Amino acid sequence: MSENNPNRQETMVKYGIDEKPPLQEAIPLGLQHVLAMFLSNTALPVVIATGIGLSTGNTAYIVQMALFVAGIWTLIQCYGIKSVGAKLPVIMGTSATFIGPLIAIGKQFGIATVFGASLVASAVEIVLAQFIDKVRSFFPPLVTGTVVMLIGLSLVPVGIDYAAGGGAAANYGSFLNLGVALFVLIVTLALNLFASGFLRISSVLIGILAGYLVSIPLGLTDFSQVAQAGWFAVPTPLKFGLEFHAGPIFILSFVYVIVLIETIGDVSGTTAAVNREATNDEIKGGLLGDGFGSAFASIFNAFPNTSYSQNVGVINFTGVASRHVAAIGGVFLLIMGLIPKVGGLVAAMPHPVLGGGAIVMFGMIFGSGLRIIHEDTVLNRRNTVIISVSIAMGLAVETTPSALQNLPQTARIFLGSGLISGGLLAVILNKIVPKED
User: Fold this and answer.
1) How far apart are CA 174 and CA 361, in angstroms?
2) Burial readout 9-35 (b: 16 or more C-beta within 10 A, e: otherwise)
3) Does the pLDDT of residue 289 top 90, yes or no?
């Protein structure tokens, strides 16, 4: 075993980071990583693309590119290219943190501006990675946990909108739509709470698949785009073009800072599985993988990428920390990204099915933030006030955007994001309010 540590038995590690399981084990273990992240990496692009107003065909293409980009950058995170890449079992995928801001930017400026701003703003994470020791103090668990909770809370309305059928649906809010979404929710919760092993880990994916199958005889699916899609296609860089506007770049720059903190947690959680702390080179490499991966994604028509926390959970749950296993998962993603029919199948998913799964996913994001605060923060008067006021501010601008209607356009988009308003307030309050004894 590669991790020699006297406390290793406590981590229950089956395969260390540099160990290679037999191929007959490594392949299904790599596929398990894909199953754990597949829904997020395909559903989130659908949420963003349809929120912006893209056609089903373009949405399917973006899903395909999300798989392609995730596969390439998972391989780079596992094996590294010079200083880029953590050289750890890090699985990459579309980031949920960007959903709200990207939809707002896309509606206002168009998809080309989304990719242009994502490309330029990724430099923020790349630059900050060089000074990570100096900036970490701005983002203690109190702040990061609050921001993660805000991510989940700000996305829940998106989930319920999809559960009702999507804003443009003629039968919006019908019993059929809500019933399918509820079915997905019940199946997912039942598996997560009462099953074990693979069924529990894949509960969201199985719930979505069950809802997808149920929706076929109910007439909610349209597979015309799948039939028209080819079996193999080479990605086309800059298919949607690039446009650059200062406001969207400024907004996404802040979001990349939040993603940076999430990635530090994921890299640290990965090495914790083998009972050691992450080195500075591993953290820096992981952040550079995030930043350059998101820049690459912008060029190849995918939304910003980041490390996936659910795969850190798989590593800790299974005891399989081999980066070679994670790399096999990256190969699966890369291959699927070259098959347009995969993107077509995901894009054809009925909105209520996606909504039922999204409510669970977004709720679990909130739970992750709650856990971050609970494990590392004393809930005294100071910290409770910071959390409460920051979340209240974030929800206020999310639920009542008209309150900001007299502000300049860029300020409306920036401050109208609950993630940015609440997160920025949490950072400021944490720095200026004296700590209690």
Assistant:
1) 23
2) eebebebbbebebeeeebbebbebbbb
3) yes
